[in-house]
Amino acid sequence: MDESIGLVETQYFTFAHPPHEMRLESGETLGPVTLAYETYGRLNEDKTNAILLHHALSGDAHAAGYHEGDKKPGWWDSMIGPGKAFDTNLYYVICSNVLGGCKGSTGPSSVNPKTGRPYGLDFPTITLKDMVDAQRHLIDHFGIEKLLAVAGGSMGGMQALQWLVSYPYRISASIPIATTAKHSPQQIAFNEVGRQAIMADPNWNDGNYYGGEGPAKGLSVARMIGHITYMSDVSMAEKFGRRFRDERKPFKFSADFEVEGYLRYRGDSFIKRFDANSYLYITKAMDYFDISDNKSLHEVFKGIEAKVMALAFKSDWLYPAYQSHEIVRACKLAGVDITYCEIYSTYGHDAFLLEVEEETHLIKHFLRRVYHGYEVTDEFEI
């Protein structure tokens, strides 16, 4: 039986102290910069067994194990630990909260050292490349010259692709899951509706809500919109159907249906742990992301020696499988050693968090072959 890694603590790394601020893709500078991170397992003597995991939009550094007093473990606990996909008996696993986040890393809610107040909208525009550049500083801090792998789902998958392009010689493998090389107009549209919900809340106050009542209603609606896209029609039908709630008040615009109550619960719980401005900045960074950098996609992958395994899910309509197909085709044209696996699931986009057994089998197999130097050429469906 797989074990839990038990109690863990979030740690913090600060760099880019003035006058050596971090230069962002926009041309602006930022510093000092703090990244919250957690580690699981042990780094071997030659520092060749490290894996960097990337979280999705609403995630954080707490990927596995329990914090003191927690009832629930980290967001990918089912995949990290002894005997699991990211086996901590073999690998040293690192996960950091992204630049721009709100769970310990420098973001809009952090104090601006120049003013002594939270940045708010004075926080500079950030990109996923900036997030990856910040992570590179963390990896340098560990003295790790080359990561065994980078991996993540959704926005985490975009970061795994960015590592592949920005630092191809610093990784042996990349595992982008349920992701895309760039957002489609529909994906941008969903994010924009969420942002507008936040900014339409009068308590948003042009981002200057710290110390007062924040845009809770707007952020809750943004999360509700997002959560609809994470599920599939089938998973919603199976989970909720058209069942009414026991405490419903028909035709009074209360949460009469089970699915309404669920979405409201999701929205209300989200506002307790996430900053609205971080939501704006991070979703905009996702929309700006385009790994092709206005070139043919295969051109940016040319010369990359790292191995890649891309995973997609058949019912994922937020990041549909065709977007992974585009990545696979471009990698093949560029001569990149890529494995593609398309998993049957009815969970929609949430499948990357829920299809544990299938992902574990695939990732375990892939990582062991990368670690031991076997050739990776498989392509199949589950």
Radius of gyration: 21 Å
The quaternary structure here is: single chain
Helix share of residues?
25-40%
How many beta strands in the DSSP annotation?
Answer: 15
Sheet/helix structural class: alpha/beta
Give the strand order, joined by hyphens, for the main sheet.
1-4-8-5-11-12-13-14-15
Give the C-level CATH assignment of the largest domain: Alpha Beta
What is the second-level CATH architecture of the largest domain?
A: 3-Layer(aba) Sandwich
* Regions with little confidence, pLDDT below 50 for 5+ residues: 376-382
Main beta-sheet strand count, sense and barrel state: 9 strands, mixed
The pLDDT mean sits at 95
CATH homologous superfamily label of the largest domain: Alpha/Beta hydrolase fold, catalytic domain
CATH fold annotation of the largest domain: Rossmann fold
Distance between the termini: 23 Å
Percent of sequence in beta strands: 15-25%
The backbone outline, from C-alpha atoms, is globular
Q: Specify the number of helices.
A: 11
Task: Outline the secondary-structure elements.
Layout: E1 11-15, E2 22-23, E3 29-30, E4 33-40, E5 50-54, E6 80-81, E7 86-87, E8 92-96, E9 111-112, E10 117-118, H1 128-141, E11 149-153, H2 155-166, E12 173-177, H3 185-200, H4 216-230, H5 233-239, H6 258-270, H7 276-288, H8 297-301, E13 307-313, H9 321-334, E14 338-343, H10 351-354, H11 356-372, E15 379-381
Parallel strand pairs: 5-8, 5-11, 6-7, 11-12, 12-13, 13-14, 14-15
Antiparallel strand pairs: 1-4, 2-3, 4-8, 9-10
Helix pairs in contact: 1-2, 3-4, 3-7, 4-6
